[in-house]
Amino acid sequence: MPNDRKARVLLLDDEKFLVEIYKIKFEKSGYEVSTYYDVDDALKALRKGYEPDVILFDVTMPDSRSGYEFIETVQKEKLAKHCLKVALTNEGQDGEIARLVELGADAHLLKTNFIPSEIVTTVTEMLKTRKR
């Protein structure tokens, strides 16, 4: 990421209220945020060349394809190759976490364990660690 631009976050979640809260928190912390409510729209942006520094995606989206399908497609099509990919879920079962990692997620955060500002702080720390 060049030093002269804000870090970019692609935020994918079907819960519009949560998306808006996350967007506000990330923007207040200096990030540029693109929001998507379904998998197809997020994939379309990536296929058009959008290069985020972080992809933050929900795993369970009842009205859309799942986060599993999303991350699997991102990996297969080699989209956003150099960005941090973080799954957001409401469950933290070992099988789910292993599957996400196998499909290409770099990290997994339980929504219930973090308030939105803590998610921003955690992602910021992950980015700093990744740059070292």
Automatic annotation (TrEMBL):
Pfam hit, one = Response_reg
4-aspartylphosphate modified-residue sites: 58
Query: A Gene Ontology biological process annotation?
Result: phosphorelay signal transduction system
Q: Which UniProt keywords apply?
A: Phosphoprotein
Q: Which SMART domains match?
A: REC
Q: Which InterPro entries match?
A: Bact_response_regulator, CheY-like_superfamily, Sig_transdc_resp-reg_receiver
Q: Report the Gene3D superfamilies cross-referenced here.
A: 3.40.50.2300
Superkingdom assignment: Bacteria
* The keyword Phosphoprotein appears for this protein: yes
Q: Which residues form the Response regulatory domain?
A: 8-126
Q: What is this protein called?
A: Response regulatory domain-containing protein
Task: Record the organism.
Answer: Candidatus Kaiserbacteria bacterium RIFCSPHIGHO2_12_FULL_53_13
